[in-house]
Amino acid sequence: MQLNFIDNDHHASFSGRILPVIDPSDGQPFDDIQRSDARDIDAAVHAARAAFDGPWGRLAAAERGRLLMALSRLVAEHADELAALEQRDCGKPTAQARADAAALARYFEFYAGACDKLHGETIPYQSGYSVFTWREPHGVTGHIVPWNYPMQIFGRSVGGALAAGNACVVKPAEDACLSLIRVAQLAAEAGFPPGAVNVVTGYGHEVGDALARHPGIDHISFTGSPKVGTLIQQVAAERHCPVTLELGGKSPQIIFADADLDAALPVVINAIVQNAGQTCSAGSRVLIERSIYDAVLERLGHAFTHLRVGPAAMDLNLGPLIRQSQQQRVWDFLSDAQAAHIPVVAQGVVVDEAPESGFYQAPVLLADVPVDHRLAQEEVFGPVLAAMPFESEDHAVQLANATRFGLVAGVWTQDGARQFRMARRVKAGQVFINNYGAGGGVELPFGGYKSSGYGREKGFEALHGFTVLKTVAVHHG
Ligand code: NAD
Questions:
Q1: Are residues 226 and 256 in the same domain?
Q2: Which residue CA neighbors atom 26 of ligand 1 most closely?
Q3: Considering only CA atoms, which residue is closest to atom 42 of ligand 1?
Q4: I need a surface site. Which of 218, 319, 349, 394 has the fewest CB within 10 A?
């Protein structure tokens, strides 16, 4: 049985209610978490406020950095344990779960080093004045985390908030809490004072909603679906609480005829296969220049038929999807594709060892997807790659920008001038030229254009979002 972690201690929920934790690899419950409500959030916010007004808030920036570094080391020491927790909880293949634990340690390491490098400016002003700015923490920050990359998103969001001096209340997704409860315990072991890091579990519409509404929350960092992002924004607007929204994507991989296909195609495949396509920045559309369209589809199709899906512990190309409703969501998209006569080029294989009760989905490559079809417009959040041809650079830009999203884009071309033109013209928070994702990019600011959200996490830039800028003007004559 898992408990909430508030004020550096374990607490059952006030309601006494619990929720089962399901293993996506076999669909069976294996643990329980607390089904918390507004009372638990209230306790966590009070603990965080006391920390912010007390020992945590008084720490020098360099001391915060030392604590984050100690946490980074503890996470690295417990990486196998954390990876195993997230593997069972989320159905991640071993390599992915380990990569996520390593990324968590790296986020804390990065933000440990950033703590005492964040400073304001002096501003030349009228004679007789001295003017300068301070970057102050918001106070108590709320973090609503999705289930697809709990450790990574905790690392980038809570890591940045702590570095800036905030005290944090975290609401993990109800499907993926185990690793984050453990990380909060490790934070206590690392020496974070009580109340600096709190984790409260439960349903989004109950405890997530309570967090977003709580008057003691000074900033909300939400990562999740556009639909819930809208709700958070509405709730936060009532009390003018600042919000960072990291929402979904329908990210294009754009392959020009002069691309190095040997370099591009494995990356294009990985970008939709990783975490079974349940990645906000999944490269879920592949736009291919007409002259190489058939040849590229053939090569991609050949690779897709060799992709294997199975229980997380088998460490294959893909594990299961997170839950049955997610599997059903992918099936609905695929049956819409069938009804629209969208051709299936190839699909991967679910291995015989995969239990029937697990939530498996073979990766699917679809060709000639019309730009206005929902498969070209909406996030499937599963291993489905939509291919479409383009005729020219202008057409590629038009297709790339033809969704409501703008999170990430990949451009594959050896033409240097075109690389820059494309990077300028594609509306996405990150554009990768002849690579995709840059191997994680803890240091690289990340966030959306359009319905992919606003504000930036990751990198140094995130610290600006986790602080308030105060201008001080001194009139000394
Ligand atoms: P979701 O929006 O359903 O849930 C996200 C979080 O919000 C969960 O913790 C959930 O419990 C909580 N929540 C749900 N309803 C709530 C409410 N009414 N009030 C407050 N909180 C509530 O998203 P999901 O299904 O967990 O995650 C998948 C989505 O997240 C996808 O759209 C994906 O693209 C997006 N995502 C974006 C990024 C990014 O950085 N841009 C990263 C990962 C995931």
A1: no
A2: 146
A3: 280
A4: 394
CA distance linking residue 317 with residue 314, whole number of Å: 9
| 121 part of the active site | no
% of the chain residues with pLDDT over 90? 99
User: Is residue 250 within 8 Å of 376, Cβ to Cβ?
Assistant: yes
Q: Whose CA is nearest to atom 38 of ligand 1?
A: 280
**How many Cβ atoms sit within 10 Å of the Cβ of residue 420?**
12
Q: How many domains does the chain have?
A: 2
Give the pLDDT score at 233: 97
CATH number where 66 lies: 3.40.605.10
Least Cα distance to 94 among 279, 273, 275 occurs for: 275
Q: Are residues 147 and 187 in the same domain?
A: yes
Work out the pLDDT band at 45, boundaries 50, 70, 90: very high
- Looking at 90, 115, 177, 280, which residue is catalytic? 280
pLDDT for res 138:
98
**pLDDT of 352 strictly over 90:** yes
Distance CA 158, CA 382 (A): 27
Q: Is 246 annotated as catalytic?
A: yes
Same-domain status, 262 and 243: no
Looking at the domain assignment, is residue 202 inside a domain?
yes
CA distance 111 to 467: 14
Question: Ligand 1: distance of its center to the CA of 172 in Å?
Answer: 9
How does pLDDT run across 50-95, given as a tens digit for each residue? Answer: 999 999 999 999 999 999 999 999 999 999 999 999 999 999 999 9
Shared domain check, 276 and 178: no
**Angstrom distance (rounded) from CA 471 to CA 452:** 31
Tokens describing residue 57: 């808030």
Q: Choose among 410, 456, 409: nearest CA to 428.
A: 409
Q: Which amino acid, residue 209?
A: D
Do residue 36 and residue 177 come from a single domain?
yes
